[in-house]
Automatic annotation (TrEMBL):
Protein name in UniProt: Maltokinase
EC number(s) from the headed UniProt entry: 2.7.1.175
Protein family: Belongs to the aminoglycoside phosphotransferase family.
Keyword Transferase attributed: yes
GO biological process: glycogen biosynthetic process
Entry-linked InterPro entries: Kinase-like_dom_sf, Mak_N_cap
Species this chain originates from: Streptomyces gilvosporeus
Domain of life: Bacteria
Manganese is among the record's keywords: no
Length: 480
């Protein structure tokens, strides 16, 4: 097909970088509108995308060069959507996309394709998910190996670390809140998807723990970020590279396996309690701590109430339990009435079995993914909080395993969950953490808050799983 004068005019000329092409985003928008909502990491499921706006575009490899080689562009785009029932304002979440651009996409990459833009600077080329192309993933590692800036992006490496070149790349099979690529069983790069401006706790906390010589968390070796929006502000973390623990299995798989063969899990759970307490102790040493008094406890309880109300509006199934669940939050607020204070510190923020890895040989636990609950604002995720909040979250995870494993919540599985929960709490207290049994109001409030979060999470991401947190809602509402 011959090129018209108007398409020629919109074609990029060598002196106009891709990010300056006025029609870059409009030409990609139809492709993104079909592809983005299908991605596991897309947080706005169930609400129509009404448009996209471009935050930034950085060409990591030339995208419009002649020849048969792929290009790569990193985009930050805002997806415009109607506000969800849990938020007052119109949302426009920002997502990071790493797109490959190929003049003739090889068939092996066909499943990664978004499509071919009908116009704009990439017209006629195939745009695809770069993180499914090992060659482009290799280029990302190369960028991290040699620190420096490219456009709006800065690639950084811990001083005194060496990164080998040429490690083979493979994306991890399970897509979660973000996308990860493993390099030669040596490193894993997590590319953040939903981007909040500022320092991501998944870089901040593991670096602080490495500084405190805590061996329970793989220490970041390199990362990339975009510049701060305003002078003196923090850069925005976009991806983190850390050592890969090859001979390990995550706690979720291990727990499900134990359930499937009706095996005891109290030993591993107790050891996991130790690991959690060690991480909390190191975080409290490395980063600020505070004491929560009556006003702060009241504020925490008020936020829990607000989340419950918003979630009950979004998921009507929760409504009948709302009044009884509220009593857990009132009891938390009342903890401040007798003048007692509670320690608060930086915590993991989204601790569950899937965030733990256990080595095959010595059965040593590590904790990963310190991002916090991805749906919460960054400032909230970085707040100082009672460490028992993580413990309560992990207790929920044992309950999840018992209810979703092969036996699906039969009496033996539920007893298994109770024994495992006790062993974990015991291990936590044994290794210096505050004994969860000494703070029943705190534990109940945080478990309830987590179950409410899970109701919303499952309603949005995995409606088939909604019954799991709803069972906990019923139990917690009954005051159990
Ligand atoms: N350092 C690591 N070593 C081995 N596997 C890892 C490591 N970090 C993450 N993983 C694997 O990658 C998965 C996703 O990592 P995670 O940090 O939880 O990402 P997400 O934020 O997308 O949930 C984990 O469940 C785990 O299986
Ligand atoms: O790991 P992510 O940061 O993506 O966390 C989100 O997804 C989790 C599910 O993958 C979700 O965890 C919930 O389901 C788990 C089982 O799949 C269970 O072990 C957890 O206890 C339960 O909360 C997590 O809440 C969400 O933030």
């Amino acid at each position: 097909m011959s090129e018209t004068a108007s398409t020629r005019a919109t074609r990029r000329t060598p002196d106009r970088p891709l990010h300056a092409a006025p029609d870059l985003l409009s030409s990609l928008a139809p492709l993104l509108a079909a592809w983005v909502p299908r991605q596991r990491w897309f947080a706005g499921k169930g609400r129509l995308i009404t448009g996209f706006s471009l935050v930034s575009a950085t060409e990591l490899l030339p995208c419009t060069a002649d020849g048969g080689t792929p290009g790569m562009v990193q985009l930050l785009v805002r997806a415009q959507q109607a506000a969800p029932p849990t938020r007052a304002t119109v949302a426009g979440d920002c997502y990071q996309l790493l797109l490959g651009v190929h003049p003739a996409l090889p068939p092996r990459l066909a499943p990664a394709a978004l499509g071919r833009p009908a116009g704009g600077p990439l017209r006629g080329r195939t745009v695809y998910d770069a993180l499914l192309d090992s060659r482009l993933c290799g280029l990302l590692l190369e960028r991290l190996r040699v620190p420096g800036r490219i456009g709006a992006l800065r690639f950084c490496r811990e001083p005194d670390t060496e990164l080998p070149s040429g490690l083979p790349a493979r994306p991890i099979a399970v897509e979660q809140s973000n996308s990860s690529v493993v390099y030669g069983d040596t490193f894993i790069l997590k590319v953040f998807r939903r981007i909040a401006p500022g320092l991501n706790p998944d870089l901040e906390l593991p670096r602080a723990l490495a500084g405190a010589h805590c061996p329970r968390v793989p220490a970041p070796v390199a990362w990339f970020e975009s510049e701060a929006a305003e002078e003196g502000g923090e850069p925005t973390t976009l991806g983190v590279l850390q050592p890969y623990l090859p001979d390990s299995a995550d706690g979720w798989q291990l727990a499900l396996h134990a359930l499937s063969v009706r095996s005891d899990f109290t030993g591993p759970a107790r050891a996991l309690g130790h690991a959690t307490a060690e991480v909390h102790t190191a975080l409290a040493r490395a980063l600020p701590t505070t004491a929560l008094h009556r006003p702060q406890l009241a504020e925490i309880a008020a936020r829990m109430h607000a989340r419950l109300e918003a979630t009950a509006r979004a998921v009507p199934l929760l409504e009948p339990y709302r009044p009884r669940l509220r009593t857990a939050f009132d009891a938390l607020a009342a903890l401040g009435h007798d003048g007692r204070s509670w320690a608060a510190q930086r915590i993991h923020g989204d601790l569950h079995l899937g965030q733990t890895l256990r080595t095959a040989g010595e059965g040593r636990w590590s904790l990963i993914d310190f991002e916090g609950e991805p749906a919460r604002p960054l400032a909230e995720r970085r707040r100082l909080q009672p460490a028992l909040r993580d413990v309560a979250a992990m207790l929920r995870s044992f309950d999840y395993a018992a209810r979703s494993g092969p036996a699906g919540g039969d009496a033996w599985s539920l007893e298994w969950a109770q024994r495992t929960r006790d062993a974990y709490c015991h291990g936590y207290a044994e290794a210096g953490g505050l004994d969860p049994h000494a703070a029943p109001e705190l534990m109940r409030a945080y478990e309830t808050d987590k179950a409410v979060y899970e109701v919303l999470y499952e309603a949005r991401h995995r409606p088939d799983w909604l019954a799991v947190p709803m069972a906990a809602v019923r139990r917690l509402a009954a005051g159990d």
